[in-house]
Amino acid sequence: MANVHKTLDAVPKYGEPSGFDSLAALKRLERDPPHQWDEDERELLTILYRWYSDKDATTLPRTFNAVTDQDLRLSVIRYQFDSHLVLYGPRAYPEFGRVMAVPFHDPMQKYGEIRAIVEEKAAEYGINLSRRRIEVKRKSGLAQYARSPTTRKYWKSLVRRAAERERKMSCVPLAPNVQGSSAQVPPLGGVTLAADVKYEDEENWSDVEDLNTSPVTFTQPSPSSLPTTNSIGFRVWDANSRTMFDEETGFVSQAFSIWKGEYPPPFSPDGQGRQALMILTNLHLSMSGGASAFVSVSTSLLQALVKASTMKDPRIAVVALDHALLQQPNKTLPAAEILRMLKAEGQAWWARYKGHAERMVWASVPAAAIISHFPLSELRQLSNQEQTCEDVLSLNEIQSGRRTQYVSSRIRDKNNSINVGTARAMAMVSRAFGMHRNKTSLAHIKGLVSSLVDSFQLKQVLSESHYTSGIIARAFAITLRSQAHSVQDIELAFQDGVQRGTATIAFYARRWPAIPRRRSS
What we know:
Blueprint: H1 4-9, H2 19-30, H3 39-51, H4 59-68, H5 74-92, H6 94-101, H7 112-124, H8 149-170, E1 184-185, E2 193-194, E3 232-237, E4 244-246, E5 250-252, H9 273-286, E6 294-298, H10 301-308, E7 315-320, E8 332-334, H11 335-344, E9 358-362, E10 364-365, E11 370-375, H12 377-385, H13 387-393, H14 404-412, H15 420-432, H16 442-455, H17 466-480, H18 487-509
Antiparallel strand pairs: 1-2, 3-7, 4-5, 5-10, 6-9, 7-11, 8-9
Helix pairs in contact: 3-4, 3-5, 3-6, 3-17, 4-5, 4-7, 5-6, 9-11, 12-13, 13-15, 15-17, 16-18, 17-18
């Protein structure tokens, strides 16, 4: 450890500055503003210095920068550990205490997955990182005994603030229990997770049949209203699909496949266009009316994958539902609202399907609104290469002849939880969907994370601390390697997406009673 006495008693001297002092002050003014350290960063720093050798003083600071995608001065990083975490100790920095409280051999592998990320990142950056075989004993918390009154006073201040943070965290209320839902688990995002998701009765979707309800994401679900917005949707197709696809134009509905020039504007559900809209939507939803004027997009990834299981060499596209070209008046219609309109007029009498996950897009989905598209075989290849991705996606459960409800129940029975390994797998899947590219917004990343949580029943476990959830979010952000957004922004997007997906699950758990599982043929 660095010389503690020097650190404890070093008190700056003030007086008339010399020429050298003035030059040093000028250099300090020209430096970047001080880095604002957070709990996650301090926890990671403690992991690095506890389990890895710092024989080369630059190794661990460089590794820290690589893992956190930052460019802090190496001396600043070393100083943070020696002269803050070690000096002021676990009472001032509980995140330091949590790491140091784990036995050095870490029998429960509490930090095993984080160390795996660290080592992978170090190798990627060509950093020669080596594990310690014997723990280095450090005397921490000596600031409380310092001869300097300033140091002792600052230690007391840190301890008070840390105690207040811990007290507030322990008092955060959980969401109220939901009547009729099954066992619940407190999530990362603060919304109670219901372990069972109930689906609507038999549904047939106009473009992705056998849909179950995996609707749009939201933060605080209302018991009486269904979320109606989502930033992304999915469309699967193959060579036999009636909707046309072209790299330059995007998706074009069959009815407009031979149309030249600009497409006519969509009909309005109000006024004179109402009757025409009712006729066209009724034909589209019934799947028996010939060429459709609409392109259907699903907000449920699982439902899209189940549909694709009946296709030959299917492809999947991610559609930016929030794109300006899809936000024109009446361009994109929620199928649920259209069905309510039709039923009010005595139409769609055949439909038990409520259409919560379907978006009906008039005429076309322009190429500019398509985030990415690729053969679904690539997703299968990723699952074959990465066991954690297979654990998340459960592609072996998605087979032709199985309904979405049955697949969902089998996935739910696996009790997959969100941890560091799961977060990394979610990031790898997100990269397959193009969520790391420049044209992808944070809202799109939130939308895909939410869909992964909702579609694949990813449950949240009760973490020991709020900071552990930050490590999980950081694992996602680091693995995603976004070309457009900072690690910190991706962490927040991940946590928001998890919260929204969890809320969607909880919403459906409170709406429908249990439906007995049916065996697929």
